[in-house]
Amino acid sequence: EKVLEIPYKGKTLSGEALKTQVREWVEYGTIEPSAGDAIIKCADSPKYLDLSDRHFVLLGAGSAMGPFLVLMALGANVVAIDLDRPGIWKRLIGIAKKSPGSLTFPMKKDQSACDEDELYASSGCNLFTQTPMIRDWLLQLYPGSKFTVGSYAYLNGAAHVQVSLAMDAICRDLTEKRKGTSLAYLCTPTDAHLIPKEAFDAASENYNAFSKKPYCILMRLLSRGKFLRKNVRKPLEGQGGPFYLVNGVSVAQGPNYILAKRLQHWRAIIARSKGCIVSSNIAPSTSTASVVQNRTFAWAYEGMPYFKPYEIFAPETSNAVMSAILFSDLNDPKSPGNPKTKHENPNQLFSYGSFHGGTWRCAYEIDSIGEASVLLYFSRVAAPYICAVAAVGAAFLAKGYMS
Question: Is the pTM of this model over 0.90?
Answer without folding.
Answer: yes
